[in-house]
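Write out the bound-state structure for biotinyl-5-AMP.
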Amino acid sequence: KDYIQSSNLFKEFIYLDEIDSTNTYVKQNQQHLENATVVYAERQTQGRGRLSRKWVDIEKGIKMSILLKLILFDLEKIVPLTLFTGLMINRVLRKYGVNSFIKWSNDIYLNGKKVCGILSELSGEVEGLGSIIIGIGINVNTKSVPEDIKDIATTLKAETSQDFDRTRLIIDILNEFERELPNFDKYGFSYFKDEYKSFCLNFGKEILINGERMFCRDIGENGELVCEKDGEIIEISSGEVLMRF
Ligand code: BT5
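---
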């Protein structure tokens, strides 16, 4: 509450015990919600990932959505905004001494397993004008994850043997987001590109995209992957990226 009161961006924080999905909640209630409202849920019964995938609910974690209203979007800015959000989370985790990395475009990894996912969704009432909902899921204070995702997912506690103050973590993430948003607005993703590259697991590696093997040469000005295949340069701005470990 103190943080929200002192924030120039975030004006409202809604706490829910249980909801289907914080992104769905924001989408359904956005007419009544102020710009930059943050909705947090202790439990999600139908947490969502991208492309109709599921986000498994893990207790003692963070599941929240940020509503940014009346954004004249520029679809080109949506992917970079998600990348920017991931980078801010990665930055905060690193400040806590956590050895996290980013898997393009929006996953945070710790010791080869996913600890955080981001789901950005557009919701437009009028053409070109609408809102962006940024959903953030972080696995925090459980020692383990459910059996069905244990090979691919982990929690901050499982990897560091530490408990994290979730309120502090949320405030630090929102704070970092708020502090850097003007730079993102003004200069776009390119302002953050070098930092992103230095923590991006895909950069400088062979990756598989839709079954095709290519080499990731660079991260572009808008956060696209610049890849090389058979001497040809291919730019990828969305889609599935599978790491070859
Ligand atoms: C994501 O999708 O990673 C986006 C996750 C966003 C979750 C937040 S929570 C608050 C807000 N409300 C929502 O309903 N969603 C957002 P994607 O890149 O498609 O990854 C989904 C895949 O991650 C699944 O198919 C699983 O393989 C894996 N996965 C599912 N649950 C996980 C978990 N808790 N931790 C790590 N990996 C998980």
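---
The longest helix spans residues 166-187.
The pocket of biotinyl-5-AMP is lined by residues 21-23, 44, 47-51, 53-56, 58, 63-65, 107, 114, 117-119, 135-137, 139, 149, 152-153 (CB under 6 Å).
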